[in-house]
């Protein structure tokens, strides 16, 4: 459910926030996840690839998002690797310097999920090349096996003799699902240029529609209440708006602040105030007494 704009706002949030404030709700531990903002240049600036989640989904049904998902434990397995070292990725992701294995898993999840959900693969036969075509029955069979967890990403790359191109990714943001949510994710957002020769397609069982859109155009649809989005999605879209080319976005990635954004809830004059640090547009005022979701402003 949303308010006057397209902000995703589930009807059970007010009650869950009240229960958390009263000590009746224990936060679940967030799962690590990764999502990728695939970008390509257009006549009016960069466009980003987005998908719309099916209305039958348990989490963020009907919302526009980017390809992504949670880390698979098997993403820690060794793979042929190009780009910054795992130790350097740990630093970039805000992990401890000796947590290179976890860093690899997050990067692998980003690349794997992009292939699973968009059919785009950031890998190549050498450390300096990228696969030019991922269409056809054999590629689709491998993708389906990855989705079904019948095939690990490490085995997939090894079988095809491919090197993971971590150097094609840039860190962009990190958001953690609020503590009152039953499904929680600690998600790293990455940016990447659409590889030459490949094409996106709706390869995800979780989406019913995909689109290439300019960030400003998608944000305007959100502002009009036409496109439903979660706060991290619209926030990262707005962050992309000033850039005139994909190369400019990628060049800006190393200087991005990856401090995790986590919603806070506080009591104020008989209301629960829900806010996301640094993102005032998402602030909600929720009556503390029983009542319908419509009381939130």
Structure description:
The protein has one domain (26-261): Nucleoside Triphosphate Pyrophosphohydrolase. 27% of the residues lie in helices and 26% in strands. The protein has helices at residues 13-21, 86-93, 100-118, 137-147, 153-160, 215-223, 231-240, 246-252, and strands at 31-42, 45-53, 64-65, 68-70, 81-82, 123-124, 163-165, 170-176, 185-193, 207-213, 261-262, 264-268, 271-276, 279-287. Strands 1, 2, 3, 4, 8, 9, 10 and 11 form an eight-stranded mixed sheet that branches. It has a three-stranded mixed sheet with strand order 5-7-6, with no helix packed on it. A three-stranded antiparallel sheet has the order 12-13-14, covered by helices on one side. 38% of the residues are buried. Residues 291-295 have low confidence and may be disordered.
* Helix-residue proportion: 25-40%
Give the total of beta strands.
14
Q: Separation of termini?
A: 13 Å
CATH architecture: Alpha-Beta Complex
Tally of alpha and pi helices: 8
Fill in the keyword field for this structure:
about 300 residues, alpha+beta, Nucleoside Triphosphate Pyrophosphohydrolase, 8-stranded mixed beta sheet, 3-stranded mixed beta sheet, 14 strands, globular, disordered C terminus
């Amino acid at each position: 459910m949303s308010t006057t704009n397209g902000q995703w706002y589930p009807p059970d949030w007010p009650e869950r926030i009240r229960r958390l404030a009263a000590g009746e709700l224990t936060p679940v531990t967030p799962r690590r996840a990764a999502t990728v903002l695939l970008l390509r240049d257009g006549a009016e600036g960069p466009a980003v690839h987005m998908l719309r989640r099916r209305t039958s989904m348990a989490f963020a049904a009907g919302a526009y998002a980017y390809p992504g998902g949670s880390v698979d434990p098997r993403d820690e397995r060794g793979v042929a690797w190009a780009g910054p070292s795992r130790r350097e990725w740990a630093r970039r992701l805000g992990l401890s310097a000796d947590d290179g294995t976890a860093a690899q898993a997050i990067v692998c999840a980003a690349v794997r999920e992009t292939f699973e959900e968009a059919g785009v693969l950031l890998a190549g036969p050498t450390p300096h090349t990228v696969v030019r075509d991922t269409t056809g029955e054999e590629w689709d069979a491998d993708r389906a096996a990855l989705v079904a967890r019948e095939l690990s990403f490490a085995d997939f790359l090894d079988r095809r003799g491919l090197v993971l191109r971590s150097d094609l990714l840039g860190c962009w943001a990190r958001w953690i699902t609020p503590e009152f949510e039953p499904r929680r994710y600690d998600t790293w957002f990455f940016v990447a240029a659409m590889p030459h020769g490949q094409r996106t397609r709706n390869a995800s069982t979780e989406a019913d529609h995909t689109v290439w859109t300019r960030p400003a155009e998608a944000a305007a649809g959100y502002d009009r209440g036409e496109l439903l989005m979660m706060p991290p999605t619209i926030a990262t879209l707005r962050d992309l708006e000033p850039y005139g080319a994909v190369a400019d976005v990628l060049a800006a990635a190393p200087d991005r602040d990856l401090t995790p954004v986590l919603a806070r809830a506080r009591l104020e004059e008989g209301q629960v105030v829900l806010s996301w640090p640094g993102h005032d547009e998402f602030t909600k005022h929720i009556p503390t007494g029983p009542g319908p979701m419509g009381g939130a402003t």
